[in-house]
Amino acid sequence: MFFKSIFQGNLQFGNPKSYEKVIKMYDHRVENYYKTDVLFKVEEVFNSETYALNIPRFVSNITDKSWKNTVDLLQYVAQFAISGNIGAWLTQEGKILRYAWIEPKGDKAVVQKFLKGRRLLEQEGNEEAAEKALTKAIELYDQHAQAYERRGYVNFLLKKYHDAQRDFGKAIDHDISNAPAYYGRARIKMLNEDWEGSIKDLSMAVKSSLALQDIHWTARRLKGECHMKLGQYKEAEFEFKFFNRRKFKADSANTPFIRKTLFNHARALIQLERYPEALESLEKVLKAKPGNDQLTEADILIERGIARKNAGKNGFLSDWNQAKKLGSKQAERLLQEQ
Asked: What global pTM score does this model have?
């Protein structure tokens, strides 16, 4: 039976000696362990100029055994790498059957410093210690895209935005498919209200990630919000529409933003004069669980009233009166204009 497989990423080996050693071991294992039942030949993925194994997004229908063999082989050579990562998915009709995240975990100093920095970053209050560890990893290998990206995130948390932007840029320079780095740089541009610049970076984050990854949808959601800031409602509606169609798991980083994105979708539809659709979206907002949105009931009632009025439906005055009772000054102004 065949399944849809996706592989994407890279592994850096740092020097010609390690690189040549890995190629020989790769070839040996393909011939003697897997009997060629793997997806990638040496000449297809290894780059002698960068001393790296590169897999641009690769999609193919393969057997479960071929997927396991390929993952096993990549995990084997990853122990000799000093940076990089590869994601591997096996899916059927959009459902993830198997998943593997392959990255260096050996005892090389650069690898251990990076892993230490990343672990420290997961513990609140250890940002400065994480920064020191990640800086050491970069000193040991100055093309470590993942270390630059994680240090950029540390600097972002510490509100050292200039340093963060520099680190995210360095990460992108060394790995043009580094979706978290594009996303991080976009966040800084959003703080500076550089909406067009943010959209460019978020577009790259979307392009560099898979729909199977949370960051793909986070980038789409924020891209829609940037389009709203620029009054580009058609583009915003497109992003919100796709986000709202996605079914997120309870532990997804996007789940807390479902209600907010439904609300923003309704706002974009109102601006596009698609009032019946806006009403449908607002009804979903009212039924959705509150999340990281700071939306009030009054906010929702005001927009529903606007959509109802422009759709030629009754009930808009009731919505605005209710919002007024909840303390909304905007609702009060809308009622005075009637």
From this structure: 0.94
